[in-house]
Design goal:
This is Pyridoxal phosphate homeostasis protein. Keywords: Pyridoxal phosphate. Belongs to the pyridoxal phosphate-binding protein YggS/PROSC family. It contains nine helices and eight strands. The mean pLDDT is 95. The chain has one domain: TIM Barrel (Alpha-Beta Barrel), CATH 3.20.20. By secondary structure, the protein is an alpha/beta fold. The chain has an eight-stranded parallel beta sheet with strand order 7-6-5-4-3-2-1-8.
Length: 234
């Protein structure tokens, strides 16, 4: 596939996603400007990131540090905001702090401490979101809903970190709208303690409308933008 063909393919995907977002915003009575689209580029090459940037995308999400670190280096000249959205082990924190502007998957106090330590060492301020578990699958990560405010307090009090808000992934089974309504309630509790923590990171390719209807501010979209072509593996 030529670069021009790939650009056209990604442009078409972006247009479809933007149309879906626009329709969902109309249905929910929301302004498109309230939403940030994060292009999730896991398993796709840095050349796709460059094409997305050329099409006006400013925020990129990754969930594996080894892949993300390399892409962030290759695309450092683009001025993008990098979002780390996968489960994060403490032994990867130093690397992630080197390029990520936002970490969506903060789900335990030990991780808060590690992020704070490395942010201070690197002279950076990292925005952190409390990941909430909306199901009982331990493999997907996330703090229990009842732990959200305490974890938010820990982030807000940690040097080098900024509390952004909350994040969740809809359960594989069940109604995503109901799950995102629960997330919205939890986000309200966090904002009650920390009024500036207004980020709700929710919604992926298959449940954008439900997320937007329930107050999402950040959408994490991969497949709908980049397609299901054979993925790139570094």
């Amino acid at each position: 596939m030529t670069e021009t063909t790939r650009r056209d393919e990604i442009a078409a995907g972006l247009a479809r996603v933007e149309a879906e977002i626009a329709e969902a915003c109309r249905a929910a009575g929301r302004d498109r400007k309230e939403l940030t689209l994060i292009a999730v580029t896991k398993t796709y090459p840095a050349s796709d990131v460059r094409l997305l940037a050329g099409l006006g995308v400013t925020d990129v999400g990754e969930n594996r540090d080894q892949e993300a670190a390399a892409k962030a280096r290759e695309c450092a000249d683009l001025g993008l905001s990098w979002h780390f959205i996968g489960q994060l082990q403490t032994n990867k924190v130093r690397s992630v702090v080197g390029y990520a502007d936002v970490v969506h998957s903060v789900d335990r106090p030990r991780l808060v401490a590690a992020l704070s330590r490395e942010a201070v060492r690197a002279g950076r301020r990292i925005t952190c979101l409390v990941q909430i578990a909306l199901d009982d699958d331990p493999d997907r990560g996330g703090a229990r809903p009842g732990e959200a405010v305490a974890l938010a307090d820990a982030i807000a009090g940690a040097e080098g970190l900024v509390l952004g808000g909350v994040m969740a992934v809809a359960p594989l089974e069940g109604d995503p709208g109901r799950a995102f309504a629960r997330l919205r309630e939890i986000a309200g509790s966090v904002r009650g303690a920390h009024p500036g923590a207004d980020v709700i990171s929710a919604g992926m390719s298959g449940d954008l409308a439900q997320a937007i209807a329930n107050g999402a501010t950040h959408l994490r979209v991969g497949t709908a933008l980049l397609g299901r072509r054979k993925p790139f593996v570094r």
